[in-house]
Amino acid sequence: RRMSPATCVSLVSLAASRPFRPCVSRRQTLAGRPGSKRLCSATAGSGGAVPMGVFSDMHLWISDARAVIWDVDGTLADSTALGFTSTNVVLLENGLPAITLAQYKTGTRYPTPQRMAWHAVGNTSDAIGEPLGAAFDKHYVALVSTETAGFYAGIAELITKLSERKIKQAVLSNACGEYARRVIEVNQAEKYFAAVHGADDAPEPKPSPAGLLQIAKTNDWIPSKCIYVGDSPSDGAAAKAAGMVSIGVPWGAHSRTSLCESGHFQHVVNTVEELSELLSLCDNR
Fold first, then answer.
1. In 3-state terms, the chain is what percent helix, strand and coil (to 5)?
2. What is the rounded distance in angstroms from the CA atom of residue 193 to the CA atom of residue 145?
3. Could you read off the pLDDT of 241-284 as tens digits, one per residue?
4. For residue 184, how many other CB atoms are within 10 A of its CB?
5. C-alpha closest to that of 177 among 11, 8, 9, 1
6. H-helix or E-strand containing 178?
7. Which residue stretches of the chain are H helix?
8. Is the N-terminal amide bond of 207 cis, ω within 30° of 0?
9. How far apart are CA 250 and CA 61, in angstroms?
10. How far apart are CA 108 and CA 103, in angstroms?
11. How does pLDDT run across 9-30, given as a tens digit for each residue?
12. In the chain, what is the greatest distance between 2 CA atoms, to the nearest angstrom?
């Protein structure tokens, strides 16, 4: 169910009242106080000073969470090779030059039509993105399997553990909804998620917060009690605008440094194990 623009504006205004704190290290968060004094470089502030309240606030925000919403590609699913090869198949079939893996990874911050337009002509707004995006989706979805889009090691166990603790979960991807649902299906994880949405299921794609707020509203979740986990700066921006806790993961298309420097994530983990430890703080009441 799509939200009206008026509802989206209202929810965004409500979410904006929540203060945003920058990304910190796992040790600092779990301790609830300054530990190694390591802060993401882009948010460290003048002279590298650690902002007061960051550590206790982050600890409390995670422990107060009742729901975790996940991105798909590069977060749950190891699908980089599938996306990269499918992109080049479509570009070459349309007489356009192939791209490099680095170019593909940079482009993943955009929704599919915009990404394909950027790869094709260097302009995310070009109309060529729509037909190329549709061709990409058709090719991409047909090839989804546990070999091409299997969950990263430890992710299935983490999702199961959260479910056993009664933590609500959902999925929001900037890929099409058919692809997102197919990835969850082949990984036999449908029962764990209250919703699995793609960009075409949301009022607007990320970095807009509208898709996250739509999921929260439909499931009667308070945005400030939700965590969004993603691997792209656009994921952090969407969570920040929605008033949700934002956690970045560097095993997808973007490095830890780039996630921190985006200024959108409150926390960036290094491994699935760190993410599991962090999410163990979620409240299951």
1. 50, 10, 40
2. 19
3. 999 999 999 999 999 999 999 999 999 999 999 999 999 999 76
4. 25
5. 1
6. helix 177-186
7. 5-15, 26-31, 54-63, 80-93, 101-107, 112-121, 129-142, 146-149, 155-164, 177-186, 210-218, 233-242, 256-261, 272-279
8. yes
9. 21
10. 9
11. 444 444 444 555 556 444 444 4
12. 56
Cα separation, 214 vs 204, in Å, equals 10
List of residues 6+ apart from 255 with CB closer than 8 A: none
Structure tokens, 65? 């969470």
Q: Could you identify the residue written with the tokens 């300054």?
A: 34
Q: Find tokens 């991105």 and name the residue.
A: 71
- Find the helix packing angle between 233-242 and 5-15, rounded to 10°: 90
CA 54 vs. chain centroid, Å, equals: 22
Q: What is the reported pTM?
A: 0.82
Neighbours of 132 (CB within 10 A): 25
Side chain identity, residue 51: P
The 3-state DSSP class for residue 246 equals strand
Name the packing angle between helices 210-218 and 233-242 (round to 10°): 50
d(CA 3, CA 218): 9
